[in-house]
Amino acid sequence: MVAAENFVSELDAKNQLSIQRVVTALGEGLGKEGVEVADTLRMALKSAIELAEVAALWITDCDDLEMKLSLAEQCGDGARQCRRLSARLTALGVVGYDPRDGGYSKLFAFLRSLQTPEERASAGYVAGKALSIARLTALAAFCQDKGDTESAQLMGVEILDEERRYYDEGKRMLVAVTTTEESQARARRSAYRTLELAGETVEPLRLRKSLGKRR
Description:
With 215 residues, the chain is an all-alpha fold.
């Protein structure tokens, strides 16, 4: 068994390789699907509401105080993210969009099923927040290319900074709970499944389905 610090560093490095593939596929999907700036905001909004709900579900049976407080903060930050993204959508003429339209993703279902601290820290924080950072960066770059600096700033700076803080917290929490071979195995499996499901969501057909009907 490797030391917990080394395990987390190695896991994070492997995650980044998978995340890069997901983001590359996302970029290709955005181009092929003729996505508009408003669509990227809707994607970010749908992700924000799902992650906030997952955090809320995890709080109730979380024994670790640090993680419990962090999850509570995520709920608040997630709600504010949804408000800001919705306000930006309204400014672009998209009124009344509900990110729950079309149902919840398979990734949401998987995350809410996780029970152990190492699974939650690995999937929800280390893999999940690293993925969120990369995805927000890609969406912000898309908005910037389309000439929408305000949307790019919102996703690529304001929200991204919040996600980066949780990513850094997650690595510290994961080190603390991956001190056995069994806990490391659970953390590894949950990260792998998280990124596997994330990869499915950026397939062209699934991407269009997740966006639903434009209003």
